[in-house]
What does this fold into?
Amino acid sequence: MNKWPVFCLALSAFLVPTAGAAGQDVQAGQILYDKWCAGCHGFDGAGDGYAADYMLPRPRDFTLGIYQIRTTSNGSLPTDEDLVHVIDKGMPGTAMPGWEAKFSSSQINDVAAYIKTFSPFFEREGAPDPLEFGRQPRREGIAEGREFFEQIECFKCHGDAGRGDGPSAPTLQDDLDFPIRAADLTENWNFNGGGSVEDIYRRLRTGMDGSPMPSFSDLIDAQFMTEEQLWHVAQYVHSLSPEEGPTISDVIVARRFEGDLPASPNDSLWNQAEAFYIPMVGQIIADERWFAPSVDGLWVSAAHNDEQLALLIVWHDPSESPDPKWLEWQQSVAASMFPLLDSVGVTPLPDRLTVQFPTSIPTGRDRPYFLMGDARNPVYLWQWSSQGDVVPEATATGLGNVQPRRGESRTLASSAVWHQGEWRLQFGRSLATPDSEAELQFATGELIPIAFYAWDGSNGEQGSQRAVSSWYGIHLEQPTPPSVYLSPVIAMALTVGLGLLVVWRAQRREEG
Ligand code: HEC
Ligand code: HEC
It folds into this structure.
């Protein structure tokens, strides 16, 4: 038997440095890395783990030594503290999880040290000193920040209202030629490096290397603007998001109106109905799966007047599809997610949204299978397409098993407007219809299951490749004093509380 390999292995164990600079244990870091990080980032750190093809943005390629979340100047390596920080917190809005709950701080140090060994630059150059960021000025300057937002052309990528729909947005690529979205600045809970004014200011000073997001430090160096003015830009960006990130409630309350319901998606009457946030995830349970959904949440408001029900569904989508300007984007998403299928996406696709109900109000906890029902338990659908190419009402007995409902007596109406990266879609229907067999008959005071599907055509989404929610409940207020009807809502909320878990668990099973 040839003993050389064994000998070499033993020798190499002596050659690999076991301790990094500040008591970092590179070998311990490697063990953690191989177990927890390699599935995405690859065993050799090249960003090509087995899961890498299923995500956009893709896992970082550590061999290049290019990092986004730094305190160092544009084009520089990150400090050890930067690496530890980003591993601790993860990168919200991407697949990169935070690890602070799972690892001790010395473990995070070890794994950070190991990551550095993938790139020769760390040993050769090391990281420069962090930039001086100073403190946020006490005087708030949101209006001045807005002026600079226009002057230095943030809107070109991020759009006038900040929803990632600027004229350059469809053309953006990262340094490795993968499509990359200009961040939606109205959702700071998804900012990769954190959503506070301080976080935003740092990203503006350092840029996000490897992505089109530039650094603006040179504008200060060139005395085009002061540090204080750049802080005001950060304050302005921060002001575009709500004070608090969205909270999820299991029940959408349909406000009872006396008289007229809102007539259109922009009707100011909608201000009187609360908007409920519904998180959306990619459909990854049935074939063909979709790992890069563009719509990650909907805001749903509902109103009724004992005769009609109106639903307002609002979501962000940087393109009003079908839009030829986004065709290249659509193709490059398809190419990065499905390297084998180059025929995907030759024509621009429309945006779509579907609302799903059971065909009748269930007794107890019984609900149809959340993914379009099944043969035993069909679902009843309200469908909308930006191209008008769907039959508005349908029933379904499973994915791909949709039976459109045609006929004279249809009462479902819908209207939609797209403005600056936001769709506002209103559905309206009478509570009761002639066909009580296949069409849900709405009743006040009940908890009625409701779920949603969304497609961003410009992102290449169609068919089963869509964003999905789990079941929620919609409750039509009754004309009784609040004290009487609040408690049933809470009781019913408990029975649907498991809704989110369904999706979550199914995904876990999928991953495991
Ligand atoms: C589920 C997949 C996944 C796993 C597991 C994962 N990462 Fe990541 N990671 C990503 C993705 C995706 C990105 C890039 C996000 C982006 O570019 O916006 C990333 C980026 C990073 C970055 C770059 C940060 C920057 O400033 O640019 C570091 C460092 C990192 N990951 C470290 C780790 C470590 C260490 C582990 C294991 C403890 C790990 N990752 C596990 C998906 C993953
Ligand atoms: C050339 C296009 C482009 C311009 C111009 C641009 N950005 Fe960005 N910006 C991006 C892209 C792309 C991202 C997403 C990077 C990523 O996800 O990795 C981004 C991300 C961001 C983020 C999110 C940071 C995070 O932690 O995820 C903020 C905030 C931001 N930009 C603000 C600005 C402001 C303010 C300006 C103008 C001063 C600006 N951007 C100009 C392309 C641009």
